[in-house]
Amino acid sequence: MALRADSNGIDASLYRRNGSWSTALVDASLGTTAAQEAADRLPEDVAKLLKSQQAQAEDVQALIGALDPAEGLRAPVARFVAVHAGEVVLNEIIPGLKVQSPTVDVGPFPNFTALARARGGSFSYLVAEVGKDGGEVYLYNTTSPERVTSQGIVGLPEEIHHARKVPGEYDQPKAQAAADEMVRRNADEVAGLIKKMAAENYVRLIVISGDIKAREAVIAQIPATLKEYVEVIDSHTRTGGADVKQVDAQISKLIEDVKSKALADLEAKVAEQSGNGRSLLAVGLDEVVTALQSAQAETVLVGQYQDEHTLRALSAEPWLAHQDGDDHAELVAGEWPAPEVLLRATALTDATIRYVPDSVIPDGAGIAALLRWAKS
């Protein structure tokens, strides 16, 4: 599933599926005897919890069958699983999240809050390793260290060698011209891959490493609209001459820089609106709910999770209603904790959600929303 930049990473169409959902957030760590024993007990423990909430038998079996430990990853690490109609729809590892005990939910729509909080501010990025003979472009997402996919361009290095080394067939200027043309052509194809993969995956960072001339040639062919995302690592990663740990550390630093800038930009927008009559800012739970009801909210900012509140979830637009009152009574599917209802409405109205430091939210309100159009 492609993730929009700065999104909650939740596919809104999942909320439109009819029928019961079962979700579980569990510890998936290994590395100690106690962790292994807990992993062995986990399927039985989760099955009991699901059955206590009247989960369908086929959902129970599908979910516990997906509860494998996360081998090879440093603890803590969690696993989130969502099942619908006996099918495992999502099965995701969340590195760095410590889960003390399993949490399960069964209901008419899925509880994706744990996943959304872990993915908050996540984005896709590309790492291109280039050389004179072509290059590979790797797609990653900040939610996981695992590579999502890769595509490559394989040029004709033997032709470059031939053009430079075979005496008598070319004089030096012609040999160099031929070699330069091949480098340019390969660079153009690599840049085309970058453009295609960037457009398909909403990337926020493009890291380019490898041969200096090849890097320069690729960057020259990248569209102007993507160049603001380009960062260069001065390392020959493609030929195996680079310190992998050092390169990984450099990429991690670039990722943190992007996240920090995104948060700073949000904070600046909130500050600007706070001093501008708040015409494009909803502050507090009631105002955010009202904004979501009209699809006016563009970015929901959560500094405090609002766990102490409940909201009414609706079966159709406007998708949610205030806790008090009888508006949209004919659409009420039930009451749930506010974080679940807010996330569902955010996804269904094509808004985004960011979990931010509480200091970003004005007046200590805990939640706010940047709006698509001004309040009337």
From TrEMBL:
InterPro entries: Bact_RF_family2 (IPR040701). It comes from Glutamicibacter ectropisis. This is Peptide chain release factor 1. It comes from the Bacteria. Pfam families: baeRF_family2 (PF18844).
